[in-house]
Amino acid sequence: RYPAKVKLVDVGPRDGLQNEKQPVPAEVKIQLVHMLQDAGLKEIEVTSFVSPKWVPQMADATEVMAGIQRKPGVRYSVLVPNMKGLEAAFPSKPDEVVVFGAASEAFSQRNINCSIAESIERFAPVVEAARAKGIYVRGAISTAVGCPYQGEVKPESVELVARLMKEIGVQHCGVADTIGVGTPRKVQAAMEAALKHYALDDISGHFHDTYGQALPNTLACLELGVWQYDASVAGLGGCPYAKGATGNVATEDVVYMLHGMGIDTGIDLDKLIDAGKYVSDFLGRKPVSRAAQAILTR
Ligand code: HMG
Ligand code: MG
């Protein structure tokens, strides 16, 4: 039995845009967030408080957070890699912060410039300080099935990072296929590893679509009862430290699949497609969503 309801977090403004070479003005990002909340998204990953030398596109994090007219019932999350990021994020009053680690040592070094063990040490005070202010803390485990530098990643590595995150008080665990190499059974194994330390209600999937596997991987995790997923409007995105990896699964495609299965998302697909078209027009390309393309040319 599949879950009756699914919660989708749109990570387009963050994961989607972090990788864009051309500057995207803060007002475009803000408008995108407004269109996503209008479409019924209940959580939006807005931006990252990371080093602007590492990810220049997210340098306007404070400005973007300040420009959003918040809608009641919607949660606004931001990435923070360390205490500096958390302190920079505090005035923006995020509902949720995301610490991001990895199941592969090589990716941890390239993405956040430290080992897995060091990352946990860095996250511990971040988790404590965020929770002391009543901010919910999510953890992302990157390269949960495969790493661009190290190849295949074993479920045991995912289990270890999930355990370490749990030990320092991270409340939610996001299992991420950063480079979209996973296939359904492998992704299920990674999810099951995380489920040894996190309850079904505290776990989510984050699947990039490089090999066209993100929808089947989502379906495979629905089979396990996982009911929370990240997705990116218009299929935007990629990670600057995972060359060649494409965006997340397009939110439109996930919504189309779920609604077709009678699973409730609370999202208005037509409005979501408008949001995807808005940002894709700005970037000068077509939405990387098959459902959006089909519906727009109908
Ligand atoms: P570092 O160089 O080791 O850090 O970078 P540091 O503490 O030595 O500081 C170096 C400089 O950065 C200093 O400035 C700090 O002040 C500054 P300087 O003295 O040279 O002028 N700095 C900061 N500035 C702003 N905000 C901060 C911050 N921290 C330090 N928070 C660091 C370590 C983690 C900062 C760096 O590696 C970094 O910013 N990495 C971010 C990488 C990133 O954003 N990757 C993409 C997001 S993760 C992702 O996409 C995966 C995900 O989608 C899931 C999936 O698909 O797998 C979540
Ligand atoms: Mg990602």
UniProtKB/TrEMBL annotation:
A Gene Ontology molecular function term of the record: hydroxymethylglutaryl-CoA lyase activity
Catalytic activity: (3S)-3-hydroxy-3-methylglutaryl-CoA = acetoacetate + acetyl-CoA
Keywords: Lyase, Metal-binding
Protein's GO biological process: ketone body biosynthetic process; L-leucine catabolic process
Pfam families: HMGL-like
SUPFAM superfamilies, alphabetized: Aldolase
The Pyruvate carboxyltransferase domain, residue ranges: 6-273
Pathway: Metabolic intermediate metabolism; (S)-3-hydroxy-3-methylglutaryl-CoA degradation; acetoacetate from (S)-3-hydroxy-3-methylglutaryl-CoA: step 1/1
E.C. number(s) listed in UniProt: 4.1.3.4
InterPro entries on file: Aldolase_TIM, HMG_CoA_lyase_AS, HMGL, PYR_CT
Entry annotated with the keyword Lipid biosynthesis: no
Source domain of life: Bacteria
Family matches, as NCBIfam families: PRK05692.1
The family this protein is said to belong to: Belongs to the HMG-CoA lyase family.
Protein name (record): hydroxymethylglutaryl-CoA lyase
Organism of origin: Ramlibacter agri
